Amino acid sequence: MKRIGILTGGGDAPGLNAVIRAAVKTAIYEYDSEVLGIRNGYDGFIEANGIVPLTIESVRGLLPRGGTILGAANRGNPYARKIIRDGKEVMIDVSDEIIKGIKRLEMDALLVLGGDGTLHIAHELYKKGAPIIGVPKTIDNDIGGTELTFGFDTAVNTATEAIDKLHTTAEAHHRVMVLELMGRDAGFIALHAGVAGGADVILIPEIPFKFESILTQVRQRVRDGYLFSIIVVSEGAKPYGGEQVFSRGGDEIYVPRLGGIGQRVGEFIEKNGFESRVTVLGHLQRGGSPTPFDRWLATRFGAAAVRLAAEGKFDRMVALRAGKIVDVLLGEVIAITKRVDVNDDAVLAARGMSVSFGDE
Ligand code: F6P
C-alpha cells in the first residue's frame, strides 16, 4: 500500500478530525504509506485544488477539534451534480471522473467517512472499480451494521446538557419546556438524551404520538405536585395518523429538511392552558469538541480502516459490535434501516418510570 485517500462526505459530525488523524498516523507510521485528503466530499476529485497531502504535521492537534479539516458537502452526489449548461441548470453524472481521479492519483484505497447517503454512493463507486473502505459517521446513529457511529455520543451530551439547563428554568417558572432534537427518521438522540436528562415526555419517530397523551402526562404531573414538565421531541416524530413536519421541501440535490414539530407540540400545550416555551437545539448538536468516547471510537475506526486498506478488503465498512471493531459489507450496511427498537430496554425502563412516549 503506497498511497491512500480520505474524504469526509455529508454533514459534519464531531470526531471526523479524530478519524483523519488516526488514519494518517497509522498509514504513515505503521505502513509507510502516503495519504491524500480530498476536499469537500467527492467534489474534491473534480474541483481545482481539491486534493491535499496529509502529513503528520497536518494532523497535529486535531483530536479535540470538531468539524472536518477536509470540509464536507452534503450536496456532493457525483451521480447528480448540478452544473450550468447553456445558461440552464442541468444534472450530470460525474462518477467516472471520480474513478479516473482515484487512478490518476494512484490511490490504493479510498477511505470514505460518511452517513448513509455517502456510503451508498461509495458502494456504487466500488462497483465501478473504486477501492472503497467506509467509516460510519453521523450524530443520528442510524447506520446499519454498527452499534454506534462516532458523533452520536457528543450530540447526546450536548442535548442532555440542554435538558439539564431547561429543567432549572422550567421549574423556576412552572412552565412546560419543549426541546426539539435532531436525528432525522431515527429517535436515538432524543431517546438517549431524554432518558439521561430525565424528560417527562419523549417523542420519537418510531412511536407515533397523540397530542392528548402529552397533555394527560402534563396534567398528571401537576396533580402530583410538579408544576413543570420537560418534553423532548425528535425532529422526525409524528402524530398518530399524521405526517412529519418539514421546514423546507427537498429537490434533486437536498433532502427535505425536518423541523417544526416542537413548535406544534408547544402551541398545543399552550392552547390547553399550560405556559410553554420551545427550544430547537439544531446544529449545536453537530458542533464542538468530540467527547472522549467519540475520540476513542473515531481513533479505533480510523486505524482499523487503514488496516482494512492494507489487507485489500474493499467494499467494507468498519463497525462496532459488542465492544470490538469489526468490518461489514457495504452492501449489507446500506440495506439496513436502523431505527430505535421500541421494545428496547431503554424504552421499557423509561416507561416503567412513568415517562410518556405519547402513545398511551
Ligand atoms: O444527519 C445529521 C443531521 O444533523 C440530521 O440530524 C439533520 O436532520 C440534518 O443532518 C440537518 O442537515 P443540514 O445540516 O443540511 O441542515
Description:
The protein is an alpha/beta fold. The protein has two domains: 180 residues, Rossmann fold; 144 residues, Rossmann fold, CATH 3.40.50. 35% of the residues lie in helices and 20% in strands. Strands 3-2-1-6-7-14-15 form a seven-stranded mixed β-sheet, with helices on both faces. A hairpin with an 8-residue loop joins strand 11 and strand 12. Helix 4 crosses helix 5. The longest helix is centred in the middle third of the chain and has 22 residues. The radius of gyration is 22 Å and the shape is elongated. The chain starts with a strand and ends in an 8-residue tail after the last helix. The structure holds 6-O-phosphono-beta-D-fructofuranose (F6P). The site of 6-O-phosphono-beta-D-fructofuranose (F6P) has 13 residues, from strand 12. 6-O-phosphono-beta-D-fructofuranose binds next to strand 12.
Summarize the helices and strands and which ones pair or pack.
Layout (H helix, E strand, L loop, with lengths): L2 E6 L7 H16 L2 E5 L12 E4 L26 E5 L2 E5 L2 H10 L4 E6 L1 H12 L4 E5 L15 H22 L2 E6 L6 H9 L4 E3 L7 H13 L5 E6 L11 E3 L8 E2 L2 H11 L4 E5 L11 H20 L4 E6 L2 E6 H6 L9 H8 L8
Parallel strand pairs: 1-2, 1-6, 6-7, 7-14, 8-10, 8-13, 9-10
Antiparallel strand pairs: 2-3, 4-5, 11-12, 14-15
Helix pairs in contact: 1-8, 4-5
The structure holds 6-O-phosphono-beta-D-fructofuranose (F6P).
